[in-house]
Structure formats: structure tokens, C-alpha cells
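Entry 14. Structure prediction run on the chain below.
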Amino acid sequence: MRWMWIDRIIAFEPRRSLTAIKCVSLAESHLHDHFSADTDRPAAPVMPTSLIIEGMAQTAGILVGSVNRFREKVVLAKIVRAVLDQDVLPGQTIRYTALIDRLDGAGASTTGTVERLDHAKQDGRWDAIGAVDLLFSHVDRNLAGVTFPEANFVFSDNFRTLVESAGIPFDAPT
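Output returned:
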């Protein structure tokens, strides 16, 4: 995983659920262009919706991959539904909670909720801002019989550290 859109795993129930958080910071370069200032308006940085969806995909993908201790290649096959009702700004934290709905040899379906903590409010309340439902496929069991090279699925040291620091067993080759 080249880009990490989650910072820490905060809860894990094997084969059932995984919760991760992402602290959004103005130090992240993607916020500088989304949306940058122009002659008519000041800068209004927001976390791009596509990256919030990717954060949920990484959270749910870790959950699905953990079932077989990351020995199988799991890829996002389909975004079934993605609804995000509010923006996330620098200084706020995103919480992703993924649940496995169905899991079999071909893959898995997950449902997820996206919540936001606005530290400026100081009330400590997480507000639900969206839902993302995903389908994952076990690439090694694809119907086309294609063999995929290991090099395409090598996890970075950062990914492995994230997973192992949460106490999730990781048996994938290094």
C-alpha cells in the first residue's frame, strides 16, 4: 500500500469488525489543492471524498485480509454504495468502522460507517457523516485462472507496522 489513509487501528474483532482513525492535518499536501485560493475566494481545504472512501477501503481491506492472516491477495472489487454528507477539514479526525457482512472463498462484502470528530467543538462527540459499502475479491481465487505476481501486492513496512501494532497477526511474505 503506497499511500496510507488511516493512521491507527483502534479496535479489532477478528472476522467481524475493525475501527481505524485518520487525523487530518493541513501538513498533508493533497489539501493544498483541494480547494486552493484563487482571485475570487480564499483557500478552503477539505479532505477529498475519494480519499475518505479509500480510507474506508483500507480499513475494510485490513479486516478482510486479516481473516487469512494476509496470506491471500485481497483487492477492492466494487464500491457498492458511498454516501458522505459532510466535509472533513484540517484539524478534524475521521473514524472508520468496517463490518464483514459476507465472507466466503471468493471474497467478502463489508459495510462501513464514517464519523468525524471536530476538536474545535470540544464536546468529544463523533458525528456520523457517511456510509461506505464495499466488495472485495480474493485475487488468488479468480475465475480467469490468472496468476498475479507477488511484487504487485507487497505491503510496505508502514502497513505491516500499522497492522502488527494493533496486535493483528500478519503471515504474508515480506
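The chain has one domain: 8-165.
Filed with the rest of this week's runs.
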